[in-house]
Amino acid sequence: MHNHNHSQSDNSASKRIGWAFFLNVVFTIIEFIGGWLTNSTAIMADAVHDLGDSLSIGTAWGLNKLSDKEANATFSYGYKRFSLLGALINGVVLTAGSIWILFEAIPRLLAPEMPQVEGMLGLSIFGIAVNGFAAYKLREGNSLNERVLNWHLLEDVLGWVAVLIVSIVLMFKPWAILDPILSIGFTLFILFNVIRNLKETLLLFLQATPDAQQMEEVHKVLMSSDDVMDIHHFHIWSLDGEHSVMTVHVELNDDISVSQLKKLKEQLRHGLAGFDFVHTTIEIEFADEDCRDV
């Protein structure tokens, strides 16, 4: 039942990412056409950025679907970490894309250009609707991959909000410099959050402890029995930001009977149930036994 629920969650994540990919590709094509018709370099630049987003989301979709495959002799823990790889790739791509946008926008502060305002207004409304719907779909998910992709789409939504505001203002005032100012502001905001998510992804990819507080709580559970003297080789790591694994060596105070050992195992099983680990390994070491992992 536990694995079945995770499978349903993973399938839902793939569907949500698939929706985001389809909407982004279709809108990128429309955006290229709209940028050409409005003679707007800003929209054309955003279309190039959206093309990168589409490739990035498509990669994440494929990796997320691959992560649903069952474990085998090559990947004994399954393919969950491929989803984490997708999040890592997308974080890097979005960071690079945001930096590129800054390099494009900053020079326009010195030489702003007036675009075709009516076309900008129409495309901005359409862009907010399409990207907003895609971001809403991904917001339903909890995976790290979906969270990183959601920043892709949120960046596009905020970018189109900037275009909408600028296009309305430009209808009354020829302040073309507002376009690069707002673009830089939104991009810096998105870049800050993406780097934060990218840092988390890198730590998980390097098998850092996902939650220090959880580690302390698990430690208390493992030490709660009077039969346990100490624990060591205690590790918790995450496969993909959602599914975690725990291993530990448990040292006993004295030699105990088989029935007592079964009781201890049941106690630990019950205590660890609330942490929802996908895999746990507990090695019992008797009082007169040396640890084989020095």
UniProtKB/TrEMBL annotation:
Its main location: membrane. InterPro entries: Cation_efflux (IPR002524), Cation_efflux_CTD (IPR027470), Cation_efflux_CTD_sf (IPR036837), Cation_efflux_TM (IPR058533), Cation_efflux_TMD_sf (IPR027469), CDF/SLC30A (IPR050681). Keywords: Ion transport, Membrane, Transmembrane, Transmembrane helix, Transport, Zinc, Zinc transport. The chain crosses the membrane at residues 17-37, 82-103, 119-136, 148-169, 175-195. It is a multi-pass membrane protein. Residues 20-204 form the Cation efflux protein transmembrane domain. It is found in: Membrane. The keyword Zinc applies. Residues 210-285 form the Cation efflux protein cytoplasmic domain. Pfam families: Cation_efflux (PF01545), ZT_dimer (PF16916). GO terms for molecular function: zinc ion transmembrane transporter activity. PANTHER family: CATION EFFLUX PROTEIN/ ZINC TRANSPORTER (PTHR11562), RE54080P-RELATED (PTHR11562:SF17). Belongs to the cation diffusion facilitator (CDF) transporter (TC 2.A.4) family. SLC30A subfamily. This is Cation efflux system protein, CDF family. It comes from Paraglaciecola chathamensis S18K6.
